[in-house]
DNA sequence: AAATGCTAATGACAAATGTCACTGGCTTAA
DNA sequence: TTAAGCCAGTGACATTTGTCATTAGCATTT
């Protein structure tokens, strides 16, 4: 079985590739970033893409979206450090077959690969529950205002950028702060980003 | 050579341990968190401790400090995702022999282990320069005020907690914001934490 | 058709923040 | 001994933020 492993940390990538070759006799090709992975996906046919999320170039979720949009015959399994609700949701929307945390034992990864190849979905139940329980409470306007605030822009700048009044911008930010139980706008943005909502 | 590998992500730990056994015929014992690592260090003699920093229980730096304080005959090599200046400094102060990022290739890790066993220090030059270049600009009072602000406390609460006037608290926070080029106090705290200064 | 709920939008105003000019004490340099 | 620099500390005040009450439009429910 041909696997493409996309992981930017060299040490981790080599170790995982090596282990997968040992554990299950997979043919593993390595990609050090999202763009390299993308090129490889276009050059060869892989049975499965095993990808981290946060990498230089394309993220793992963007790779999954690409596979889905181009209807490549490649299953996708995500392995990541943080099981953010936003990530889980977007990954599933992008048609990934598996979503695992790096906390999981290797046996579980190997088993997940097998099940995904058989057409099953493998996502940690707890992650799913977290994902469902943590619906993104922000409206699109609140999100836009928050993003700009996180970039250090003042209320006036935010108002100008979104073509709204200052009072409106303040209200959007205030709503976001309240929904996320944050101390202020920057804190609200941090929380939203942490949950994958920004 | 007996190595203790402390890494909380099961998949990563198994993969690294497996690779180290293959690559260089090391005897690797695994610890899933800092406390387990501590117990093992007290039960057996290891030639080297290879540790992540951020783990449940003791951090990798705390483990290094323990080894130093108890003068255990165990060399320490840190491998971590983020090369924060604060981490590098504290790790070196704790007498670690090596400090590597997970970005580094496995060959570099194996080589570093060898050199550290010969009594050499192995730290990425760029990390060292970053660490030196990024001196903690905060005074102790500014740090205390920032920490409390990061916990969501108001200026009044901070003043009360530190037995200072509100104006003083505001000034400390303002100084910190200015030094770190932050948008506000919460942002300043985020930056300080990111750099290992908080 | 009317009521209800939600989002987008606004401005008044109170509260909080952040800047600034300042003082005092201590350490270091001239 | 004096000057300079830094940290700890303070309060006045301008600026910004955040809350709140409000309106309008649209979709959904009754």
UniProtKB/TrEMBL annotation, chains A, B:
The modification 4-aspartylphosphate is found at residue 52. GO terms for biological process: phosphorelay signal transduction system; regulation of DNA-templated transcription. Residues 2-117 form the Response regulatory domain. One of its GO terms (molecular function) is DNA binding. Residues 131-196 form the HTH luxR-type domain. Keywords: DNA-binding, Phosphoprotein. PANTHER family: TRANSCRIPTIONAL REGULATORY PROTEIN DESR, TWO-COMPONENT RESPONSE REGULATOR. This is Transcriptional regulator. It comes from Arsukibacterium ikkense.
